Structure formats: structure tokens, C-alpha cells
């Protein structure tokens, strides 16, 4: 199922999607000790590519790009993803630089796209909205409140903690975090982000504090130490699957959330969804770019490995 580029609320699809990911497709430069590549990126892209390999009939992607990345949106459409493209003066351009420790990266922002607004998203319908924040002004608190009235809101908090100083990205606290948690159904953060948000280094303590602000489902990814999920006060600890080789970590958190929300949307419990997401991450880490495996590959890894 495909759509044309959509620029007016009246022409947008009204059928409710199981999952709708909203975020910017970016132009990324990924630099590691082994390679230096330019490629599409951003939560929107990695999330959509991961779901492309699964049953994506009930998935919709909403993005805002400049002329340079419209071709990427068209490519996703040709692959069967339903894509809504909102106008933007330019696309986000990120530079991601990794050292030998792939859990660590530095970033520069060389261009920014226009933020998402209530007017630009009016009429969208979904059971779950996943907001792929890249920078702190991508989604205002008013947008979170509006979407929470139309479905459950899942947020990758990373962008709210990124402040651009010149071209460099520095971590800052999320000013609206306590009020925002009242409207967020699923929050995803990594170990650095949970510490910025809560001041706590222990994942369980951080998850409980975030939950106490009103978010019922907190997903904390801890790199090669796996992930911790806190759902309505109950903890689910998911170790990471072993990889044959770590090639590219960019988009790993987005891949995790694609797998996690896909399984949750289809009725899986948190542990089953977390294991599925962890298996997807392992397969993604072993190659460059977005997840390119299949449901069969994921099921085979789950069957072969006992966590």
C-alpha cells in the first residue's frame, strides 16, 4: 500500500494504523575506525526499515524532509511502506563518529529540519505513535498531549536531551520531562539518557523514578549489557544476544524499539517483546546500515539461544 506525498490535512489517510512512527529521515555521515560512509538515517528510517522486514501492513511512517532526502521516502514507498511526507526547508544532517568502543559516539549537526506541529499532524490515527526525536525542538509538549488523545504515545527521549552548540551536540536535561511523562505510555532511553533524566546510574532506580512521574512502561537499553523494562512496577531484564562481530551500532536503539513495539502491538508480554527486540539488534549490529534480516532470521536466533 502506497501513498503520494501529502501536504494538506484534508488529503491524509484516516485509517488507523497499529503503529505510526513520526520523525525526520536524515542524511548521516557515519565514521568508525573501519569506514566512513554517507547514508540515510534517523529513527524514522531505521524504524521503518526494521518493520519492512516484518509484517508492516498496519504500519505508517510520517516524516518531514528537504529535497535531498525525498528520494529515500520514495524508496520506502516502493518497498511497501505507507509514507506521509511533510514539507521541510531542509533535512537533518548528522555526523556520527565512533571510536573503538562502539557504545560511545560524538555527534555534529550540520543542518536541521522543520519541527512537527499539531497542524502538520492533525487527522493522524494510530494505536501507537512512536516519536523518533532527534533534536529537542522536533516535538513540543503540545504535540505529545495532542497525540496522546488519539493513541498511546511512545517516545525515544534521545532528541529531547540534545542541545546543538554551534555544530556540536551536548547532552542537557529535558525541561518538560515531569509533565511529559503523564502523557507518554512507553519511554525509551539508554543508560546515558536515563542518568541525565534522573541523576541515577542504576537502571532499576532510574526506571522506577521515571515511572513515578506517570509513564507506565519504561524501556532502558544498556548496550552490550542488554536492556531493562519496567512495566507497571514489574521488572523484565533482557540480556543482549552475542554477536559474531559488531560492525555498525548506528540505529540500534531504533531497531530495538521497532521490534519491541511490533511485538507489543501484537499482544506479546514485555519479556517476549524484549527478547525479540534484542535478537533484532544482534542481527543489525553485524552489518552496515539498517536491519536487513527477516522474521525467519529472528526466530532462528531466538530458538538457538537461551537468555
Question: How would you portray this structure in words?
Answer:
The chain has 307 residues and is an alpha/beta fold. It is 30% helix and 28% strand. It contains 10 helices and 15 strands. The protein has helices at 43-52, 70-78, 118-121, 141-148, 177-180, 191-198, 203-212, 252-265, 270-285, 295-304, and strands at 17-23, 26-31, 36-41, 59-65, 82-87, 92-98, 105-111, 126-132, 152-156, 162-165, 168-171, 186-190, 217-221, 227-231, 234-238. The strands form 3 sheets. Strands 5-4-1-8-9-12-13-14-15 form a 9-stranded mixed sheet, with helices on both faces. Strands 3-2-6-7 form a 4-stranded mixed sheet. Strand 2 and strand 3 (36-41) form a beta hairpin. Helix 1 (43-52) crosses helix 8 and helix 9 crosses helix 10 (295-304). The longest helix is centred in the C-terminal third of the chain and has 16 residues, at 270-285. The protein is globular. Mean pLDDT is 89; it is low at 1-12.
How big a fraction of the residues is strand? 25-35%
Please state the structural category.
Answer: alpha/beta
> What does the average pLDDT come to?
89
End-to-end span in angstroms? 37 Å
Q: What characterizes the major β-sheet? A: 9 strands, mixed
Number of helices: 10
User: Compute the gyration radius: what is it?
Assistant: 18 Å
* Overall strand count: 15
Shape: globular
Oligomeric organization of the protein chains: single chain
- Residue stretches low in confidence (pLDDT < 50, at least 5 long) are 1-12
Largest sheet strand order: 5-4-1-8-9-12-13-14-15
Name the helix and strand elements from N-terminus to C-terminus, one letter apiece.
EEEHEHEEEHEHEEEHEHHEEEHHH
Helical content band: 25-40%
